[in-house]
Specification:
Elements lengths: L4 E4 L25 H7 L17 H13 L26 E9 L4 H4 L4 E6 L12 H4 L5 E3 L1 H13 L5 E4 L5 H13 L6 E5 L5 H6 L6 E4 L6 H8 L4 H16 L3 E2 L5 E10 L8 H12 L4 E5 L20 H13 L4 E5 L2
Parallel strand pairs: 3-5, 5-6, 6-7, 7-9, 9-10, 10-11
Antiparallel strand pairs: 1-11, 2-3, 2-4, 8-9
Helix pairs in contact: 1-2, 2-6, 5-6, 10-11
C-alpha cells in the first residue's frame, strides 16, 4: 500500500481505497434510544445554541444531537431536513447511518499507520459529489450496513483491543454529532487512543467547534482553490471559502502535528492535497494559503496518485493521470512557500 511514496518533505501512503478485507457490519442493528431522544427534545431540555460537546454530559450531548438533526445544519449544505423522522438531505443519511467496513489499515501516512495500523471506520455517503472519487461505491453509492451510536461505540472499542494506534473516522462530516456522542460513550467505557477526523474538508466551522476537545488529529483534504472547479467536479460552489475557514479552525484546536518517540502521531493537523490534471486542484494557491494563513510548520500530505475513477471518464481533462511536468510544477510550490514538513508521493 505504501509503494510509490517517497521522501519526507523532511513518504505518505496512498489515499484510502475501497476496503476489500475489512470486517463488515453484520451485527443486529440496535435502534437509537427513542425514549432518550423524546426526552431530549422536550421544551427546555436542549441547551441553547451549538455547544461544545466535549464539555457536556452524555444526556445533554444527546439533546444537542436532537437539536441539530431536527433541522439539519451539520454541514455547509444546510439542508434543514428533519433527520429524526428519517428524512434525508444531500448526504442521504438520516438518524442512523451506514458503515461500509472497519479494519486495521496500514496504508495511511506513516505516523498514522505506524507499526500496528490505524483503526479505520469507513462511513457511507458524503456531502460532496466528486466525479473522480476512488471510494465511490461507499461515498456516492452508499454501500454499507446500517449502524448507530451503540454499535459504533462497540466498533471503536474492538479496534482499540486490536492494538491500533488510533481510531480513524473516514468521511465523518455528515455524522459529526453522532460521532461526537459515540466518542464520549467510548471514552466512558475506557477508550484511550487518539481520534482521527479524516474529512473531505467541506466542514462547517460551527460544527467543528462542537468537536473541540474530542478530536485529537484532524486529517482534512484541501481539494481546490477555485470554486468554479469545486462546483464542476464536486458540486460545491463555495468549497474554497468553507475549506479555508475549516482548516484554520482545525489548526486552532489541535495545532501542529505532534509525534511521539515511537514515530506515532498523538495530536495535530495533517492537510492532504491531491494533485489533479491540468492543475484543477489549484495547488499553488492551496500551499500559499497553508504557509501564510496557517503555518509553514504544517504537515502536508502531497498526493500524486490520481487516476480516473467513477465518472471521471466523462471529463476529458480528468480522464488521465497527471504528467511529470504537472507534478514538477506543483511540487515547486512546496519550496516556494517554505513547506518542509510532511510527505510527497512520486509518480
Amino acid at each position: 500500500m505504501c509503494e510509490g511514496w517517497a521522501f519526507q518533505i523532511k513518504g505518505i501512503s496512498p489515499r484510502l481505497t475501497p476496503p476489500k478485507a475489512g470486517k463488515p457490519i453484520n451485527a443486529p442493528v440496535v435502534q437509537l434510544d427513542r425514549a432518550l431522544a423524546s426526552e431530549a427534545s422536550r421544551p427546555g431540555s436542549t441547551p441553547g445554541g451549538r455547544t461544545n460537546l466535549c464539555k457536556t454530559n452524555l444526556s445533554n450531548s444527546m439533546s444537542i444531537l436532537i437539536s441539530c438533526l431536527k433541522s439539519c445544519n451539520i454541514c455547509p449544505r444546510n439542508c434543514k431536513v428533519n433527520r429524526l423522522e428519517g428524512k434525508t438531505g444531500y448526504c442521504k443519511t438520516g438518524l442512523d447511518f451506514n458503515v461500509a467496513s472497519y479494519n486495521v489499515h496500514h496504508g495511511e501516512e506513516p505516523p498514522i499507520s505506524g507499526i500496528n495500523g490505524s483503526g479505520t471506520i469507513f462511513f457511507a455517503n458524503c456531502n460532496l459529489s466528486c466525479v473522480f472519487c476512488q471510494n465511490y461505491p461507499i461515498s456516492q453509492l452508499g454501500n454499507g450496513k446500517s449502524c448507530n451510536i451503540e454499535k459504533l461505540t462497540e466498533i471503536m472499542l474492538e479496534l482499540e483491543q486490536k492494538g491500533v494506534h488510533n481510531i480513524n473516522l473516514v468521511t465523518p462530516t455528515h455524522l459529526a454529532v453522532q460521532i461526537a456522542i459515540t466518542i464520549k460513550k467510548a471514552k466512558l467505557q475506557g477508550l484511550k487512543i487518539p481520534i482521527v477526523y479524516n474529512t473531505n474538508g467541506y466542514d462547517s466551522v460551527e460544527t467543528l467547534k462542537t468537536l473541540d476537545g474530542l478530536i485529537d488529529i484532524y486529517l482534512p483534504d484541501a481539494k481546490y482553490s477555485k470554486n468554479t472547479n469545486s462546483k464542476k467536479y464536486s458540486n460545491a460552489s463555495n468549497y474554497w471559502q468553507v475549506n479555508k475557514k475549516a482548516l484554520i479552525e482545525m489548526h486552532r484546536q489541535v495545532g501542529e502535528l505532534k509525534i511521539n518517540k515511537d514515530g506515532i502521531a498523538t495530536r495535530g493537523l495533517i492537510i492532504r492535497h491531491l494533485l489533479l490534471p491540468k492543475n484543477i486542484s489549484g495547488t499553488k494557491e492551496v500551499i500559499r494559503f497553508i504557509a501564510n494563513k496557517i503555518s509553514k510548520d504544517t504537515f502536508v500530505s502531497f498526493m500524486a496518485q490520481y487516476h480516473p475513477a467513477y465518472n471521471a471518464f466523462k471529463y476529458k481533462e480528468l480522464n488521465r493521470k497527471i504528467t511529470a511536468k504537472e507534478y514538477s510544477s506543483a511540487a515547486q510550490a512546496l519550496d516556494e512557500f517554505g513547506i518542509t514538513n510532511g510527505w510527497v508521493q512520486e509518480l
